[in-house]
Amino acid sequence: MKPAPFEYVAARSVGEALEALDAEGAWVLAGGQSLLPLLNVRSVRPSRLVDINHAGLGLIRRREGVLHLGATVRQAALERSSLIAERWPLLAEAVRHVGHAATRSRGTVGGSVVHADPRAQLPAALAALDARFVHEGRLLVSIEVPPPAAGARVGYAEFARTRGVFADAGAAVVLAPGHAAIALLGTGRAARAEAAVRAGANAREAAALAAEEVEGDHHRALVADVTRRALERAGRR
Amino acid sequence: MTWPEFLRDEHGTIVLEEIDEHAGSATYRVYGRRSLTVTAAGGSDGDVPDTLRDALDPPAFGRFVPASRWT
Fold first, then answer.
1. How does residue B50 score in pLDDT terms, banded at 50, 70 and 90?
2. Do residue A59 and residue B22 have CB atoms under 8 angstroms apart?
3. Strand runs (DSSP E) across A113-232, as ranges?
């Protein structure tokens, strides 16, 4: 199948994008790795697509210690960035699990966040990093990630049936003295497990608490396993 | 330092991908090749670093300087 007819607007700035989005049935087009398949099977039928790929939102910037990710930063750019690898290694680790090299070359960080598939890796990693999402009107323009705490260690682990497919379970972890953040794919932060880690629980004990955030024996077993592995990678035994 | 977003001629494009204000450096993507990082070395705002100019108009190595030659 092919998409239902729509109007295409290429925005050259955030202002142009916002103006074009001010219409019934207008959707944002970023990397298109999720949206285009949905268009092709006509699961969605926007009347207008507003392409923001040339709206000046494609920059990675560290300013006053904070990481600013423009909404159209490619997942591949995140993956190859030495700044990200050095200062925000959780993002570098998580993004390597997103799709395939070809999809990461077009797929955007903002698109992954806005599409919000419950099995997507980047929203979980960003949740663990206490990221802030900056909007102008209906448009996500950037993601701000605070500097890592002194002595922070991170870990990401997931279970996927084959490489490149959406994971059945995944966990992103940030540990620092007096600080624990555990984010699960699909359910977000696991507050009870975090509190247990801060109180001195080991990886297996905290993972068991994280598993209580989901339903079903099989899913719980997977979440316990990936959370334990992520915690161990972050240095918790 | 204001980094140019694009450097483009008929042979290709170099696109600004990352700015690290703490380190005073910027990383550009030379399409079809690889990324390169340049550091601001004085000059007024808006100046294009010589290394970037050279990437589009290298004296001896073809249109693009091999990334291995960049510092």
1. low
2. no
3. 132-136, 139-145, 153-159, 169-176, 179-184, 188-189
Nearest to A95 by CA among A109, A106, A114: A109
Selected for mutation to probe chain A from B13, B16, B18, B35 (highest A CB count within 10 Å) is: B18
- Across A146-165, average pLDDT: 93
Contacts of A58 in chain B (CB under 8 A): 15, 17
Is B17–A61 a contact, with Cβ atoms under 8 angstroms apart?
A: no
Q: Indicate the domain borders of chain B.
A: 6-69
In chain A, CATH 3.30.465.10 sits at 60-145
Please name the member of A58, A80, A83 whose beta carbon is closest to the beta carbon of B20.
A83
As annotated, the residues of chain A forming the CATH 3.30.43.10 domain(s) are: 7-51
Q: How far apart are CA A161 and CA A129, in angstroms?
A: 26
Distance CA A205, CA A210 (A): 9
CB of B18 within 8 Å of a chain A CB? The answer is yes
**Lowest mean pLDDT: which of A131-135, A204-208, B47-51?**
B47-51
Would you call B19 and A62 a contact, using CB atoms and an 8 Å cutoff?
yes
CATH class of A7-51: alpha beta
- Which residues of chain A have a CB within 8 Å of the CB of B22? 62, 65
- Give B3-47 pLDDT, tens digit per residue: 777 766 555 567 888 999 898 888 887 765 556 666 665 444 455
Q: Specify the pTM.
A: 0.89
Using DSSP bridges, classify how beta strands A66-70 and A132-136 pair: parallel, antiparallel or unpaired: unpaired
CATH code of A153-233, in short, is 3.30.390.50
